[in-house]
Amino acid sequence: MNAVVAVKPLHYVIHTKQAKLHHHHQTVCCCSSSRNNEKIDGLYSGLSHFELEDHKNMEILESSSIAKENQNDIWELFRETQRNILYLNKRRLMALEEMKKTQQEKQSLLDRVQQLEVELASIQNSSPIAASDKATAWPQLLLRIDSMVLTRIITTEESSNIRGLIINNKAKVASTFSDIQLKGDAELLEELRDFSIKCKQTGFHIIHICTELAPVASVGSLALYVTGISSELQENGNLVEVILPKYASLDLDGVQGLRDTKAEFYSYFDGSWHGNKIWTGVVHGIGVTFIEPVHHVSYFNREMIYGYSDDFERFSYFSRASLDYILISGKKPAILHIHNWETAIVGPLFWDGFVNQGLGDARILFTCHDLKNQRLEHPDKLALCGLDPYRLNRHDRLQDNNKKHLVNILKGGIVYSNKVVIMSPTHSEGRTDSSLSHGLESTLDIHKEKLLLAPYGFDCKIWDPSKDTSLPSNYSADDIKGKAVCKAALRQRVELSSHPSTVVVGCICSDFSDIDLERLKDVIQLISQRGAQFILMGSSNIPSINSALESFRRSLEDEDVRIISTYDEALSHLILAGADIILCPSFHDPLLQMPLKAIKYGAAPVALRSSHKSSPVSWNTGMSEYIMTSFGNASLSEALDQIAENPSQWNEKIKDGMTKDFSWGAECYDIHLNAYTSIKNL
User: Fold this and answer.
1) What is the distance between the alpha carbons of residues 534 and 518, in angstroms, rounded to a whole number?
2) In the chain, N or C: fewer CB atoms in 10 Å?
3) Nearest Cα to Cα of residue 386 among 276, 299, 271
4) For residue 504, what is the enclosing H or E element?
5) Which is nearest to 245 in space by CA: 276, 203, 199, 286?
6) Is 38 part of a structural domain of the chain?
7) In terms of domains, do 554 and 567 share one?
8) What would the mean pLDDT of 306-323 be, rounded to a whole number?
9) For residue 230, what are the β-bridge partners?
10) Domain span at residue 61?
11) H/E run at residue 258
12) Same domain for 513 and 410
């Protein structure tokens, strides 16, 4: 603090000096008067004339000296007053500057509060699903935590810990918390504490032993599945590794940092130990180990991944080598995740030997993408990788249910796993059908307690109309205006007449051989009669099919029909965005996943030919239930009727579908995480 300086007003100082001068003048006058009284009869009785003159001069000098002294005092007071005024002005300016700074900080805080209030109002006016969007869920939670601290529901220390977990686990927040604004503090705090416990738990160490991985070695749905679920698991705190054969056809562009480690290990096969080289790389953030046989070089030095007479020898060698590598490298995985018949032999290999060699804490999860592809072999071939044919060729183990003289490799994966995940098509109807069990119904029934059904997901980073860079205008369920822009752009691209009210029906095929041309003719005729427009895009590697399709195209002669015989990835995005209805050759194609993409882009999926086959297990996934209830049971004619007769209800159904989460991180992730958790507790 600066000392307070008392400053006298200027008029007060001047008045005081004038008073002193007046007092001095009065004293001099009194002396003169007394001397005048001494004059008698014209004579001075006092001082002489010279004395008087001297006295007068002295008075003048004295008066002059006093006046000068007073003048100096006045100037000194002026200077002192000026210094005081300057000091006060300086203090006043400093105070004004502090006040200005405080006002700016206050305004900044008010602006921030107003911004948060606008965001909260927007969230409160949106649907519960929109409120849990990744862009808004975690800011909402942070604001609620602030409120809990201010009302002393939680301590500052606990709130700081929870804030850190939310910020570091944003990906989990949207899928964990919903209806945030509708929940009370006590309910939300309980969920936050549960979330905190789960986030602090150590994730699983999972090793996939598989034959495909997108995009480096991709043939079918397995490649997309392994990449998709592995990425989600790793992003949510689990350690995921993949072991893959080093194919000659490996797509090296999809591998980051592929290198020969110069490390070798030996694995048992066909009665002896064989050397293997190890390569490593990273695919979509997942560490991948590639095994290259040194002696059996020809096993994976081929053009195709599958389709050879010695496929059992090739993949049983790889399965045994993968287990030998895990053991020798000292890895201690919690989960060994195996897939289809190609690596199903890992199950009996593990439980018949490796479980007692340092991998006793591991458990087996088996994923089956196709129950039809089972691989039957002579029992003696089991000895190639070190298994005992006599022990395993039994009805409760690997013996085939129908051909008793053969072993069923896929069946072995089911029998020797702790959990079995069957990847589900979207057309499940909830009853067991032997035609889809392919002779495994008794095995599935015996092991029904370990069976799980999971839906496929798809990459929402690529397939999302709100972020799709290939579209002329982005849109979402909250703001769907951009879909009309995409519809106009699609018509312009394929040279169709532009009528905003006209329904556009699209169809995208990975292979025209999947299309029933006779059925397609009936569909196109229906579309033409209803005044709609139709766009078909796809290709085929079979010349006869291309010729038939070209003849079919020439025979149409319909100005509202376009057939594009070359597959174009960018155009496929635009067809999904611009179409009102997407005809799907199959509702259970896990590779193309057209029903899921159609719903996400605001188009209704309709089966080209309705199918009433059911799943080999007796329950549905949430995703398949929704798709079949909302879209799967409607024919093309019924869909066109709904659009014409009740457009507002139709639009609401379409927008509701767009809010659904069909990514790998949704239902598919939850089912797998629950499976891992349950088998670790066995």
Assistant:
1) 16
2) N
3) 271
4) strand 504-508
5) 276
6) no
7) yes
8) 97
9) none
10) 1-32+54-112
11) strand 256-269
12) no
Cα–Cα distance measured from residue 179 to residue 284, given in angstroms and rounded to the nearest whole number: 33
Task: Give the CATH number, domain containing residue 497.
Answer: 3.40.50.2000
Instruction: Examine the domain organization and report whether 296 and 405 are in the same domain.
Output: yes
Same domain (yes/no): 603, 647: yes
Predicted local confidence at residue 610, as pLDDT: 53
Number of domains, the chain: 4
Confidence of residue 630 (pLDDT cuts 50, 70, 90): confident
Name residue 435's beta-bridge partners.
none
Indicate the pairing of strand 256-269 with strand 581-584. Answer: unpaired
Helix (H, G, I), strand (E, B) or coil at 584: strand
- Arithmetic mean of pLDDT, 186-198: 79
Instruction: Count CA atoms within 13 Å of residue 583 on its CB side.
Output: 30
Are 468 and 486 spatial neighbours (Cβ–Cβ below 8 Å)? no
* Residue 380: pLDDT over 70: yes
Residue 663 placed within a domain: yes
User: CB neighbours (10 Å) of residue 615?
Assistant: 23
d(CA 191, CA 376): 50
Percentage helix, strand, coil for the chain under 3-state DSSP, each rounded to 5:
50, 15, 35
> Does residue 58 surpass a pLDDT of 80?
no
Give the pair of three-digit tokens for residue 640: 């066109």
Classify residue 299: in a domain, yes or no.
yes
Rounded distance, CA 399 to CA 443, Å?
A: 11
Q: Which residues pair with 281 in a beta bridge?
A: 288
Task: Look at residue 610 and tell me if it is in a domain.
Answer: yes
Does the pLDDT value for residue 25 go beyond 50?
no
pLDDT at 124 over 60: no
Helix, strand or coil, per DSSP, at residue 623: helix
The gap between the terminal CA atoms of the chain, to the nearest Å, is 72
